[in-house]
Amino acid sequence: MRGYLLLLVFSVAIPAAVFAAILLQRYYNSEVARIDQQLLNNARQLALTVDRDLAGLQATLQTLALSRSLETGDHEAFYRQATQVRDYVGAHVILRDVAGRRLINTHVPLGTPLPSGPLPGDDQVRRGKKPYVSGVMIGAVAQEPVYTITAAVVQNDEVTHFLSLSLPPRRLADLLKEGLDPGHIAGIFDGEGKFLARTDRHGDFVGRTAPASFRTHMQANEGNFRALNADGDAVSVAYARSNLSGWSIITSVPDRASLASLHRALWTLAAVALLLTILAVLLAYAIGNRMAGAVRALASQAAALGQGWSVDARQLPVREVNAVGEVLVDASERLRQRERERDTAERELRTLSETLEQRVQERTQELAAEMKRRSATEEALRQAQKMEAIGQLTGGIAHDFNNMLAIIIGSLDLAARRLARGDHAIEKYLASGQEGARRAASLIQQLLAFSRQQPLAPTALDVNNLISDVSELLRRSLGEPIKLNAVLAPDLWTIHADRNQLENAILNLAVNARDAMPDGGELTVETANGRLAEAQATQAGIAAGDYVLILIRDTGAGMPPEVIEKAFDPFFTTKKSGAGTGLGLSQVYGFVRQSGGCVQIESGVGRGTAVRIYLPRYAGPKAPRPAESEASPTPTGDANVTVLVVEDEEGVRAHAVSALRELGYKVLEADNASKALEVVACHPEIHLLFTDVVMPDMNGRRLSEEVTQRRPGMKVLFTTGYTRDAIVHNGTVDHDVSLITKPFTLDELGRKVAEVLKGG
């Protein structure tokens, strides 16, 4: 019995000891992690402190760069300002010209001869016009370790001077001490891995290269590691990067200081655990002796009971052993009863399991059949909706194109018949045919806008200015019975969008509002700045952020929900036949989505309609107000200017050649890129390449690159009938591309050619 008790003690003590060891190990690891995290937090905080100091110095330097004395070249006045800055921030000011010649250094009096030469970061400052923070170096005048902050002096968008602050590294060492925990050491390494500052023995370390073990570990923006410092001591190190300078700010603590108390605590806990284990073994041995006597007495009683002998009650040392003897027979009977009950329960459970499996299988089959029927129904519904949409789209296109073709073909037939009779009065038929062709071209542009395939030429726009410019056109379109109100928000953000497309969108919405108010009413155009939260943006299908809102609200008849659901569908219209194409709202929807925004409709029968257009805020420069322009006649060409037309479609090429000759230009032609290159090689007098984009073998973009490589001064004008090609990306025409879309009029061609030849 004693052996079993000892075994029991050890069986409990050993796992407890293992568990305690694991807890101690975890406690040790957590303490090490806490120390590492504390070091890392200190390094981050010190990095923020250094960045704040650098940001303040950069702001001071950039403010000084705006001095009027630099614009006028008054170096004496500027020297006085620089000395004030030197006394205020504790840093010397250096002024150099773009060639690196030092003009002013507050370290010496004005007029003292100064050495010349560049400072680190001059090229970066010249290119980016942003301040640059150097590493540690020996000052050319001070002849002691310094670091510099250099900014550009910009006049008329050109860098005219370099303005620098020269600061002693001791400034950084003092800055690090302000936020450092006791016992810790902090330091700064520059981009070349040299000590820039150190809170302990700063003078011995500044300018020295960091230990190789430090440089190996400091590859990321921040982190922890352990290594040997310059004195050969094992230290725990944390580092963080400065965002403004790229320096590495480190904090460290010697392991002998940070871990000594932890080791003492661990050894104390281990000694206490060993002592408790010894006491538990001695106690178990004593208790085992007492229990062994009681168990032997109980064994003799059980043997007598098994043989049918009468057993006298005996008072044993262990009360629990007495109870065992008294209930032994009763417990045996209850055990047999429980076994019978268990057998009955197992039989019932087996029957229930067999029935349950059968029911689950039947229900699973029913659910599978139901899911199959539902999937088939949903697929049939999607197919029906798809076919309905295709039918509506193709039917609308066929209807409108047949009307326009009827006008064009009918007008040309009548003109031909009159010419055959010798009657030359065909102007009205030609005008009618041209109007039909323009309407067909407009329909194509509307379809491209709906499908988000039109080429956009976005610019920075002030929506308030745009609405003010088109307000007179809106009033003429609305008529006298409708009052136009404009509620324009002050300080409206700038957007980046195609001005013409946005004007058309506003005009389309205004015309729809006019048709909804046949007896008159009010139309309000409102602008506002707003921010779409994550939930709103997700619902609208755009990114969360800042947007400019254009709200167009009328007091018309309104729309029921079923009309709102189809309002943006192509060729869907509630107007009478011939009163509209059904592409107005589709064009608005396509343009807004292509521009990165969204459009929403709120309406109800008898409650008017409100259309909200959200366009993303533009972070670039503020939009200039466009200059007013007057209509001018079609520019005429110069017979001394030669244009090469490259087009693989014979009819289109013949039209372009005739149009350019009509404008007065000398024209050469080619039906593919290979022949075009041959013509360019034989005719050095060509001024302009007018080429289609989509051609076999070599497209227009590749042709233009080949031609301009051989003839760098040649202008290029592209033409295309479809935008998904080599010169349009993400719906926007490439910034270096001049483009005229097919079909084009003689007036449009003349203006575009003149614009390209002038370098516009």
Protein topology:
Elements: H1 2-65, H2 68-72, H3 75-89, E1 92-97, E2 102-105, H4 122-128, E3 132-133, E4 137-138, E5 145-155, E6 158-167, H5 170-178, E7 185-189, E8 195-198, H6 202-205, H7 212-217, E9 222-228, E10 234-241, E11 248-254, H8 255-258, H9 260-306, H10 319-420, H11 427-450, E12 459-461, H12 463-478, E13 482-487, E14 495-497, H13 499-515, E15 521-532, H14 534-540, E16 545-554, H15 561-566, H16 584-594, E17 598-603, E18 609-616, E19 642-646, H17 650-663, E20 666-670, H18 673-682, E21 686-692, H19 700-710, E22 715-720, E23 728-729, E24 732-733, E25 739-741, H20 746-757
Parallel strand pairs: 13-15, 19-20, 19-21, 21-22, 22-25
Antiparallel strand pairs: 1-2, 1-6, 3-5, 4-5, 5-6, 7-8, 7-11, 9-10, 10-11, 12-14, 15-16, 16-18, 17-18, 23-24
Helix pairs in contact: 1-9, 9-10, 10-11, 11-16, 12-13, 13-16, 18-19
Please give a structural write-up.
With 760 residues, this protein is an alpha+beta fold. Helices cover 51% and strands 19% of the residues. The protein has 20 helices and 25 strands. The strands form six sheets. Strands 1, 2, 3, 4, 5 and 6 form a six-stranded antiparallel beta sheet that branches. Strands 8-7-11-10-9 form a five-stranded antiparallel beta sheet. Helix 9 crosses helix 10 and helix 12 (463-478) packs parallel to helix 13 (499-515). 27% of the residues are buried.
